[in-house]
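pls read this protein.

:::
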Amino acid sequence: MKKLAFALCCVAGLLGAPNARAFVMIGPMDVAEVSSGGIDFNYTDDLGGPKDLKTFFRWNTPMLTYAFDASFMQYFGLEGREAVKEAFTIVNDFFENDDYSGVSALDYTKHGFRSNYNTTWENRTAKEAGIIDIKSLVLGMVINQLGLGNPHRYAFGARSITTNASGTQLNFNVRLRNFDPITFKPTSVINGVTYSYRLIHDAPPSAGFTVAPTFADMEEFTTDTSGNAWTSVAGIVDAFYGNTAIYWTDQPTLFGFGIFYSGKYAMGGQYKPRHALTYDDAGGLHYLYRKNNIVYENLDPNVALIIPANFLPTYAIAVFPNGSPRQYPDPSGTSGAYIPRRNSGIIPGLPITSSLPAQAPPALVDVALRGGIDKMQFIEQPFDSFLGITFSATNHIWTDRFVSTNGQNVGGLNNTTPGASAYIGIPTLAWFEQTVGRGIFQPDIIFVADELGVSPDGVPIAFNRTDSLAWIDNYTNNLGPVQILTTNVGPGLIVGPMQYTFTKLGEGFEVIWSGEASVVGNTNSYSLWGHIKGPGPNDVVTFPNDAQMHILENVLTPATAVPTITRIYDAGQDNILTRTQEALTIEGQLLNSVEHIQIMNGNLVVQTISGSQVQLFIKSHQQIVIPAGVINELAEGAAASRTVRVWNTLGASTASTTKIGIYTGLPVITGTSRDNLTFDRTQTLTVYGYGFKSGQISGANDGNSTLTYFRMEKSDGTMVFPASGNSTEVAFEIRSDTEAVLPLSAIANNIADGSNRRLRVARGGGTTELAVTNNVALIANITTKPVIATLAWDSSNNFRRDEAIDINGTALNTAYRIELVNTDGSSLSPVMTVDLPAAGVTVDDNGSRIQISRDVFYTTQADGNATKKQFKVFNVIGNTDLNSTLAFNVNAQPTVLFVAGFTTPNTFNRDATTGDDVTLTGTNLKNVNAIVMVDENGTALPNTPAISLPNPGVTIADNSIVIDTQTAQFLNGSSGDSNATSLFRRFALTGPRTPVYTAQDQRFYVGVPPKYTSYSGLTSSSTSSAVNYRRDNNTFTVNGSGLGVISTVEIVDVNGNTVAANTSISTDTGVTSVSNAQFTIAANSFPNANLVDVASNSTRRLKITTPFGIIVSDNNSSGTFSVSATPAYLGNAAATFAGGGYDGGSNTYDLSNGSLVINGSNFLGVKTIRFEDNASTPNVSITASVDPAAPPAGITFNSTGTQITITKQYISDNNSSWADVNATNARVIRLTTAADQNGTSQQINTQP
């Protein structure tokens, strides 16, 4: 026979325990809910799948019966019956107890359920023997049968499937149907543990969606380490495979071999039987069965009406039949309104012509709005005997409450108008009651033991239970008048009967054959079922019990005589019983009826063994075996001084003729109060076992009278405490032979700290006197409140998050959380924690060190330079205290990625009024303590222009630094301004880590908007205060500020407007930046300069453009000027002169023939035209003061300043003699500029 396949779950969890918890309800589902697109969603439980609110299934019968079939009693016996009754006791106690009556009165906090997240315990003996606790299994099955499903399996579930347009992806619609017990809202938290989910399926792995799965499931998982994962009682049954089509990655229950649920181990602070249910189980049952959870539902078909409901209001009773026993009595008597007759006549019915409606027979109100039943009780209703087959029938009557909606609201009865009649108006909803009952002719639940065979894969089937096919669906009763498309099942009614059948696995032996010629057999039986009562090795009863039939036989056919003892003997058969190491065997007759065993010293009883444990010692009606550890120190005695006597209900046997001595032997530990748990070494430790006391019988060499020594070992037997010697002496508190207490701080230091520790005790100091290291549970951890002694940090006492760090101290083992906190102990916002276990964190087993790898703390809320932080380590005992000497700043290496905020690209205007607000983006920027300007190569600038942080004008976040230039100015900022020899800048971010620089390809100019002060280098007029820019000769010097980088310089008109296009210059074409306060313009720098020439005083200004702004020289004497250059003529007279009156062949201007035209350049800056001869002292015939922009009549200048036209009329009117040349003196034209520079033309002949 193959062993039952049983997968144990992984206990896992997440950060901390949130306040929400939840439950799942179970019941039949519509076919449209369980699959979609040919993919089954793995809703394969025999009771259905997860239900939405108000589609639940529940009972509305307040009492159910259960019974045990003969097959069950023969296999499991009285002990099995007791185990099942304990399960029902838990449920009964939940619904009704001394603290509250009915779940509607349940208060989670007041009644001990609010934090009752885990009620499991482990019996190591049962675990290693592969024993399953039948009490816990039955408890889980009953909770399912009450309507609760496994939240660890059904919290998340697929609802439907769609595909994308190309059919390459599947979109699973997922529902969360796990509900909070207080808000009834969906939540992913179960018993304080947060779960997520993942898609698992049976499709082959592929790149993209190629083959659709046949099965898919949304599997819950968690990384929680609190120990409270997978603990719901409603999930117990899923420890057994069979109702899933896909292998579970995480078994959705904590239940397994050796695990049992008990109210004694509850977390909520109360320890009644009902507290074996976890918080979520209690919340689910409270939701289902509370009085105000109202839905339309019918009654069990087996329910009959006992007393009908009275729907009439009090004022209508007088005129309606059956309203009261005093009016219109009920002939049937069923209403209690029966009046004895005075003769043989019967009460006539009402006449059909009556104005009142005829009386109808009372009817059971079946389908109606009902609340939860509030209380339920499970009652054992036996067969005619333990091995009988005839069920003892019974009945049950109760009050059914429902809401009436039948329109029986009678009005108009107090209307006194003649002829008025009563009418039936709009119904008023109200609670009504009817008395109902049912006859119970078969048990609602029956327990059976049978050979269940094996599953298709060859694994034995552990149990079967009745499925949900008979459950009654009331979905249509809860629909409105409008047909809807939603398919659903529920709310509904759970009905019986139910049968729980458990396998008889264990009867026989197991031989594994793999094709060998022969295999040697064995007689090792295999036990699957057991009743686990506690954590100790003696707390397990396995089934079947070899003596079970003998005990049953005595119950069925009680003994008619007292038992007899033939002999007694110890395991060594030397008549000296070492009570802690040897069993005592009693042989005789009628021993299966024994209820008490007494150890005798002559006629004096020194120990009596009674109770149910005696049944555990009975092997048959001829043998009782008392295992080691049962007989106590009071029974000890010298050789041949002790006898045994046994009792049954008829009396005592005679004392055994065999006499033995009883010595103590070595102490034996069966467990401690901290088995599989963490032991705080500063606290006491309760030790369980036997041999903790000794009678010190002469010759027994049993050591001291009580425990006096102990030591701690690793699981491999290596001693860890004390540091030397065999053990250390301590003053135990000896409570009994089976219980002792290790005093406070018995382990004086941390050398015992670590995992999987074993306690050994002794009544003497020698190694051979130490307790036997039998197969007992280990102490999971020894530790105490953690202490941080030192930190391995950098030379500046900083915690670099991106580098590894060691936390050194004591009792750091069992750490489950490391938190960075403020120096006052308050948490950061948001809280900055790492919950253990976590990738990158290693805790030394002895608790002396925690190693934290780089980037484990990856969030940045602790970063900075101003406020220090501390580590706070939490373990299961407590947390570390604050230590100001261990405070530190937190940082990580910053990076800077981008610079933004410049109004003009790549130009930082640092002006306090109009400047740019700069944004630097990157990572880990909160530890930057200065922003420094450097040159484009990263080289420091003179005087270090920088902003020190913190600064009220700088906002720092982890990923950005924003400089409000109006508030935050760079110290020595002008030293950072760009200039002709050093144009570009970058930002350097400095702090406790390596400085980082903005990228070279994001380099930028730095400066402020230009300001104009004055100019110099221009030509002053000799005759006035006017100033002229002699552009072909002057070096134009401009003074001001913000002039380090010049973009363009342009000569503009007095209003600042452009005079002519393409006349500006830059540092590439004549501008030289001397400093931030000055630049110069070389002569002949302006292109097309002739277009800006002007002779009028103060008509030109200078427009200066930099990357940071534009400024125009002042519109006053310090900023205005005229512009000119020395006039120039063409190469010869024939080219220079033209016009209608000029003959180039003879170089003669004939006044009578027309105008004179003068060609050349730089004419727009001319202020005077002189008509002269060529004498050494010229004779000036005409002197014309001109403004080329507005010349006098008869004189015109072209727009480019290259031509002057003078009419013959102008010459005639002013002095025509210039046109009458004599033989000796030719004529010339002399042009004088605004700068008093003269240009004299070639000679020309003239004639009138």
Summary: The domain at 553-663 is CATH 2.60.40.10 (Immunoglobulin-like). Residues 1-20, 321-358 have pLDDT under 50 and may be disordered. The two ends are 148 Å apart (CA to CA). The longest strand covers residues 637-648.
